[in-house]
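Sequence in, structure out.
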Amino acid sequence: MAPRLIISDAFGIFAHELVPKQTTTGSIPPLYLPPALQKRQIKKMKKITNPFLDLIGKGYNCFACAPNNPYGLKMEFYEDGDDIVSFWSPDDNYQGWLKTLHGGIQATLIDECAGWLISRKFQTSGMTTNLNIKYKKPIPTGSDVTLEIRTRVKQVKRNFVFMEASIAHNGEVCSTGELTFYCFTKEVAEKEFLFRGCEVESEEV
């Protein structure tokens, strides 16, 4: 039986059945919850293909998601039903206090995950107009730490998308966020931001 990745967030608890897959950053390590909480429906996720890789030659070097930025976070994203999810390991270069993840980095993680939700779910480009974060518990740093960043839509009003987000460690929510994004028309996204669509890989993880 494939191992299960247990996920807890501000929106509920899910159990993911994972097929181990080696990537450039290594296999995704499991997060655990008490057995009493491991009673939710098993879901499978699909990795989102980075739609900006063709822009590397034109200067694409996003601090959060560009794979070649030597100082960046190199985030990758997955589609999990209505949610967009990222699993990320914070090394000690991103700490504020000793062995504690900087609050600004947490804001970046949440904001970037929301941006990819716009790209994937709405197939367009957008911009953050509001971001509020509640820091509930300190988040540790270290090579053995894996965080789960999760974002989903709460409401849509015309061109504005309202989202909620969370960062969890070891099945416990440490920070939550409320975001508002303005979505550009598809014509503007293509002309001004060179957006050509955002797809997922065919293989489930």
